[in-house]
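Hi,

Apologies if this is the wrong queue. I'm a grad student, and the batch job for Mn-containing catalase from Hyphomicrobium facile produced an output file that my downstream script rejects. I'm not sure whether the problem is my script or the file. Here is the sequence I used:
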Amino acid sequence: MYHHVKQLMYTVRVDEPDPRFGNMLLEQFGGANGELAAAMQYSVQGLNCDDPARKDLLMDIGTEELSHLEVVGTLARLHLAPMKFSRDAAEADPLIAIAGGGGVNLFNSMGTAWTADYLKVTGELDVDLRSNIAAEARAKIVYERLIGFCDDIGTKDALQFLMTREITHMKAFAAALDSLEKPRFSVGQIAPSTPLVNQYFNDSTGKGERGEIDTTGPWNKGGEWEIVESPALKTLNGSTTSGKGAEMQTEASEADDPDMIEELLADQLRDLLHAEKQITKALPKMAKATKTEQLALLFTHHLEETEAQIERLNECLKLLGAPARTKACKGMMGLLEEGDEIIAKYQKNPSGLDLALIGAGQKVEHYEIAGYKTARDLAQQLRQTAVVHLLQLSLSEEENADLLLNQLARPLMSSATMPEAVV
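Support response: The file is valid. Your script probably expects a header line. Output copied below for reference.
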């Protein structure tokens, strides 16, 4: 919840208005590196953040950026004020003077409208924090240049304050990134290909008339680095080898033992097939047991999805030329047995039963998600594109079902913990 305190974070004083400089200030009002972009970027990242501590950081700084927007907007308005009554001043920017009445609007210094495309939001906390550090660095440089073009002492003092806060935010974001204790280049979940990740492609080669000399430094030499000489030129020349440097390693590797991987994939598919067939028997019981109509509909809908997933698994085995038989999935048998125990235990407690059923359902979904991911990755290694596609469809359905169950659990938990009304 926002509350407007009718006082600027920093008191603004402009002694000598300068409409041209006011136009420059709009870069930090509605520009790509401006305060509104920062406020929206950090706030949206905060809304998406599941980490309470870092969410608080993002929302705190996002809110401060809104305060900075008010400071910059006030500075710009005071500098643009002469446009309201002076033609000479208005000629500094007719768009502001005529269309905007000499006031600020969400445009940059060139009159380009603000856009959400300025925001860098990935939903990956470490990646977003790196983007924020870079955003603060760019904003610091913009303020530095504005100070260099400003003659008004009061304005320079305000800009110095704002510029300093950019460094403060950089420090906070950097500390938050370090506190995650992730390796510097551990981005996302999928590991990069080795040794490709440590190969530096020397793609700007030349000597004398052919260009500047090649250079080396810690970015391409020492440690794990391996220089690959002109991979594009090798391809053009029809050569796959050279007397200098390492050879480029392709991103996708061939399976050392494709028969073994195919056997593993077939086993995984049969395990999933047995699991899904068991689930088709369990879901109607779960739908009947629940006391919440929406949860019953979710179980019924997922039963239809499960039947389609069985057909896909049979098709996958057919594409591999493997018999479409099942392999007893003991893990799923145990999970569904737990589900039966839950129904029996909480039969007389409606809210407890529904929450327990959701928990049991999510255990099942997570088990299936793990199975489908394993099968999909094995199929990718074998370059079985059609199998990968079918498995990805089912995997997406399982992930969506897990998400829907989680959404249903929240209001049920809230209602279960609310005190009874006093009559």
